[in-house]
Amino acid sequence: xxxxxxxxxxxxxxxxxxxxxxHPTADTVYAAIREEFPSISLGTVxxxxxxxxxxxxxQKLRCGDGADHFDxxxxxxxxxxxxxxxxxxxxxxEISPEINEQAQKYVHGKIDSHTTYFYGVCHSCLEKKTx
Amino acid sequence: xxxxxxxxxxxxxxxxxxxxxxHPTADTVYAAIREEFPSISLGTVxxxxxxxxxxxxxQKLRCGDGADHFDxxxxxxxxxxxxxxxxxxxxxxEISPEINEQAQKYVHGKIDSHTTYFYGVCHSCLEKKTx
DNA sequence: GATATAACTAATAATTATTACTATTATTAA
DNA sequence: TTAATAATAGTAATAATTATTAGTTATATC
Lengths: 131, 131
Prior knowledge:
The structure is a homodimer.
Chain A: H1 8-19, H2 26-36, H3 42-54, E1 59-61, E2 69-71, E3 78-82, E4 88-91, H4 98-104, E5 110-121, H5 123-130
Parallel strand pairs in A: 3-5
Antiparallel strand pairs in A: 1-2, 3-4
Helix pairs in contact in A: 1-2, 1-3, 2-3
Chain B binds a DNA duplex through helix 1 and helix 3.
């Protein structure tokens, strides 16, 4: 059994994620952590992010832009992604388990979860267009 | 204005996608097309798949496994993905536009679409487990 | 408190998925 | 049939991620 050992780098990565709400990619986290740990490597960031995901302390988002995004808010919730700038917003919207049950009727396997991403244009990109 | 020219390779790629319902990745399509065009290159497959997406003749799926999958069925529909084997099934389930409207209440931007992926374990993987 | 050891790190190599470039070939319009 | 041009094959480049490795630290045990 692997016993987890404390690491300041991992703490810092988690703290960074908890402090911001823009669902950064590994690369963005890397850039931020480098302020505190200039010698940290991208590999360490990836390893710890994935470790934190495994521990259930953060969650990984794949919104379709190719890169993994990370979110310190592990409560299941929906996301909205802007087609123009790629920013991601949380949707404080209730997730009903009924949807899984409904979908279950159409699948031979066993559904246990679902993810939904809403797409469109965010507030600030809409403003840019009218100006 | 770029004028589209016929290409047998592109036809074959489209035909291949229409014949199968397993939502293959570019690489899988490449392997299949090589039976007919042994000298086709992976770049050609990617270019034509993306071209067909632009033309609206097929759609691209990003289910969270890192690779793009392609689907000749362009009608909006939901998908189910098996966590074990990674296979993807179509859900012949109606998509209600109400969900967008509901979510719209929580977003400052303008929502125009959403995607939902259901996750779980498929029929054949369930069977493997019990045996 | 010293020390062994196992998890940690940085650095880098390898992989995977995808896109870009370029010389050649195929399609189409004149 | 020819000339223009888009598409191709082949290759190189890039981006995101994972794996490897050699050296460094934290922690349990002595």
